[in-house]
Amino acid sequence: MPVTVPRQQRRQAARHGRAAEQRPLRSLWFGLGAAALIALVLWFWNRDSGARVVRDGSPAWSPDGGQVAFYSERDGKADLAIVDRSGQNHRTLTRTPADEGGPAFSPDGQLIAFDSDAGGSFDIWVMRRDGTDVRRLTTDPARDVAPAWSPDGRHITFMSSRDNPEFDLYEMSADGSGVRRLTNGSSNWFPQYSADATRLAFHVMRDVHVMDLRTSAMTRLTTDPLNGMHPSWSPDGSQIAFMSWRNGRTELFRMKADGSGQELLLSMPDGDAVDPRWSPSGDAIAFVHVPSGGVASAQDATHERVVYVMDVKTKALTRLSR
Q1: 54-319 has which fold?
Q2: Cα(175)–Cα(88) distance, rounded to whole angstroms?
Q3: What pTM does this model have?
Q4: Cα–Cα–Cα angle for 240, 144, 92, nearest 5°?
Q5: Can you tell me the distance from the alpha carbon of 126 to that of 317, in angstroms, rounded to the nearest whole number?
Q6: Where are the domains of the chain?
Q7: Which of 14, 187, 240, 251 could form an SS bridge with 267, CB 3.0 to 4.6 Å?
Q8: Model confidence over 268-302: pLDDT tens digits?
């Protein structure tokens, strides 16, 4: 199954299993005591060794292609981080009790839009590239997530459950004013502007669609079971990268902007490859590897999500997650 659940809906997977047979009370207390002792030892080992499960996602390129921002989840919450394309100079941008994710650079590279539940519900926020001057743009009690900045920097599109629990897309001015609804019904996720700002790619249910922002006309580019999700435009607008589980697990594909010429781009040796984002130069794609694969694994706090950059020509991988 695919990994398609947005970050703000991640929850630790429920642990199932048949109930243990009742034991004498003394044996029960002994078992609990032993388990507590083991947990304490492991906690101290993890703390001292720095061992942590890597859970990163939602990569976003800086406009100059030199850095990638993403969320980094540790200890049950997510902060925003940024790292050089080489994997060096990792820096944490937010350190708050809230859960943050979905970073998106402004076209001039000075600002980062993101979603956060710092105000009690998930809203769209913006901050400077260094993590300062944080401002809230939306205040709806519903979930506003996954912002995308228009190429001219004047608008931000995002997905929201304010009128539809399955999410519709909305566009607003970059200062948070003038919110207008773009879609009406169904399930509309992860919008991305084309370079000329005339089209918006996103997925509806399990298929990639493109909306002409001048006419609101919709074009469906994939058809389930040859499905597609999480689309990302190439810089020249001629191609779209996307993820699909048409071969039994989630892999990265690309196609022409009209939906033709669909071809496999990357299949990892194990697990799933998800959330592709094309670099501004077009020579690389950032994505997330889920080694264990599957929706349940992606949501399990003990399973990894690792951000990589892939060279489009050579398929060479550079790990960005620490």
Answers
A1: Neuraminidase (2.120.10)
A2: 33
A3: 0.83
A4: 80
A5: 30
A6: 24-53, 54-319
A7: 251
A8: 999 999 999 999 999 999 999 999 876 555 566 67
